[in-house]
Amino acid sequence: MDRYLYGIDFGTTNSALAIFDEEKKEIIDTIIIPSLIYFPSTSIPNQEKYVIGDLAIESYLSDQMEGRFIKSIKQILPRRSFIETRIQNKKYNASDLVALILKELKGKADKIIGYNCTKAVIGRPVFFDDDDTMKDTLAQTRLNKAAQIAGFTDIRFQFEPIGAAFAYEKTIQKKENVLVADLGGGTTDFTYLILDPSKVGSKDRKNDMMATGGIYVGGDSFDSSFMWEKGTPYFGKNTIYEATPGKPLTVPKSLFANICTWDKMNFFNSLRIKKDIQDYYYYSGNDPKFKNLITLIDNNLGYSVFQSIEKTKIALTNNNVADFSYTKMDIDINEEISLSIYNEVVAKDIERISEYLDEFLSIKSINPTDIDSLFLTGGTSMVSAIQNLFKTKFPHLKINSGDNFKSVAKGLAYSGYLFED
Ligand SMILES: Nc1ncnc2c1ncn2[C@@H]1O[C@H](COP(=O)(O)OP(=O)(O)OP(=O)(O)O)[C@@H](O)[C@H]1O
Ligand SMILES: [Mg+2]
Predict the structure, then answer these.
(1) How many angstroms is it from 136 CA to the middle of ligand 1?
(2) Which domains does the chain have, with CATH numbers?
(3) C-alpha span between 368 and 144 (Å, rounded)
(4) Which residue's alpha carbon is nearest to atom 2 within ligand 1?
(5) Each residue of 138-196: pLDDT tens digit?
(6) Mean pLDDT, to the nearest integer, of 191-213?
(7) Atom 21, ligand 1: which residue's CA is nearest?
């Protein structure tokens, strides 16, 4: 038997790896990196050059946002339409890209243990996209392939919220019926299960896992909603143009949906769209807000705008007001956002999670009074509207939390023994 096993949480925003020592039965270290890849535009011939994680952000920003910056790569795993992309004259499919992140994590961990560990329990959301099983299978197949490319040979998959639950189990003293919610950047996952510290190590856990579910809404959705409501007005949403004299029209709102998600932002690279935008600008009488849109697109400012949006969101987890500010080139945004305004902006996303949770409890016949405790994890669990949602739905329960960014990876590692023959 190999001495070590890795628990790997490949996330939309962050990826973590927990090193589990199978002899000592404990985690000896945990590594976390942002799930980001950057390919600089100037490459050395015949040599691929890319950077991962924090360095990817630093290099991309210091290169004035040129080159290819890849974010939220997990979201392309279930997309049939994504076949491959060409970067520096080399083709990359979804697995190739994901493998770069897994390889980075594996490399760092192998260095710590001084050994090439090939065994991993890899997390997966309950649903990668929606309930389409074909897409789901495609996503897991691609993730499996990525793990192989990264050098793993013994690969198991476990639901991410079950990983979170196993981490929580290490902290409790008695048997509990626990509702676990893992609220990440891309998805929100639930599991309802019996946790029992006296059963740690027991193989017979199947009946303890009573229900799992999930929805494709997470922190990225909140940031998109914020961009739509609070960001796009600074980039010309509601601009009037007059291509036919005497017939003023509003620039189509659909144009702005393209700057609200990271992947759609690439769409603007098409020459036709760029020409349309130039036309609207001209016929709007050179509206300065519309000029901001041109500056945003021409200079690839998308990521940095989203960084400001995330900053506002994070500041609002501990404060009742925060600034939404962004100053670059001619763009100058400075607006005070109150927590109540923020809650309105994300209300639809919160509602979707709330409705899904009700449905989950009802379909799985879970009576809230049977739940003994709640365990929330993932970066988005810190959003105050999310905390309020759980407080309102389960006023009789205390909300427990652990390490929001490492719990899943740790629990995946702890759950590894379940796969042993
Ligand atoms: N202090 C905070 N307050 C609110 N949101 C936060 C905070 N810190 C991080 N986030 C958000 O949490 C999300 C990332 O959380 P996490 O690392 O758990 O996701 P992930 O595991 O990468 O995603 P997924 O599990 O959906 O694949 C991002 O949307 C980020 O903006
Ligand atoms: Mg996660």
Answers:
(1) 22
(2) 4-171+404-419 (3.30.420.40)
(3) 36
(4) 314
(5) 999 999 999 999 999 999 999 999 999 999 999 999 999 999 999 999 999 999 999 99
(6) 91
(7) 11
